[in-house]
Amino acid sequence: MKSIQVKKEFNAPIEQIFNLLSKHATYNIAFAPIQVERVKDSTDPERPDGVGSVRRMGFGPVKPLQEQITRMDVNQRIEYQIIKNPLIKHHLGIIEFDAINENKTLVTYTIELQARAPFVSQIILAQLKSAIKLGFSKLAKTV
């Protein structure tokens, strides 16, 4: 199984960065022009973007990619999986949060991916790594 990892320091407290990255709408800023919308709320009314929530990603009315939040440990970790995608055999996204100090947070974003077609995983992961680096740089300027 192939994977990538991106690390980024944010000049803000861990609570602020976790709250930012735990909201599906944030990814509209980070990964523009790709659009992200929540299509299913979690069962936790305090965190509608929490465990069990589903987001769709794409452009305009065409949003074929669906991701479901499978784990959320406040200020520590978020995990999600791609669901209902015939091209992807396995996709796990893990976002980990570590306080460097009270005003600086290290975010580590790991993606494991296995596509059904050979050699496709490496191409997708290379594109994702580039998009995440760019997206995190954009977000870092907003905090």
What labels would you give this structure?
143 residues, alpha+beta, seven-stranded antiparallel beta sheet, 24% helix
Sequence-ordered SSE layout with sheet pairings:
Elements: E1 2-10, H1 14-21, H2 26-30, E2 35-40, E3 54-59, E4 62-73, E5 77-83, E6 88-101, E7 104-115, H3 120-140
Antiparallel strand pairs: 1-7, 2-3, 3-4, 4-5, 5-6, 6-7
InterPro entries: Polyketide_cyclase/dehydratase, START-like_dom_sf
Pfam families: Polyketide_cyc2 (PF10604)
Organism: Acinetobacter albensis
Tell me about this structure.
This protein is 24% helix and 46% strand. By secondary structure, it is an alpha+beta fold. It has one domain (2-140): START domain (Alpha-D-Glucose-1,6-Bisphosphate, Chain A, domain 4, 2-Layer Sandwich), CATH 3.30.530. It has a 7-stranded antiparallel sheet with strand order 1-7-6-5-4-3-2, with helices on one face. β4 and β5 (77-83) form a beta hairpin. The mean pLDDT is 95.
- Stated plainly, the CATH topology is called Alpha-D-Glucose-1,6-Bisphosphate, Chain A, domain 4
CATH homologous superfamily assignment: START domain
Q: Any idea what the CATH architecture is? A: 2-Layer Sandwich
Q: Whole-number average pLDDT? A: 95
Order of helices and strands: EHHEEEEEEH
CATH class: Alpha Beta
Number of helices: 3
Strands side by side in the biggest sheet? 1-7-6-5-4-3-2
User: What summary fits the major beta sheet?
Assistant: 7 strands, antiparallel
Distance between the termini: 34 Å
Shape descriptor: globular
Which secondary-structure class do the elements indicate?
alpha+beta
**Count of distinct strands:** 7
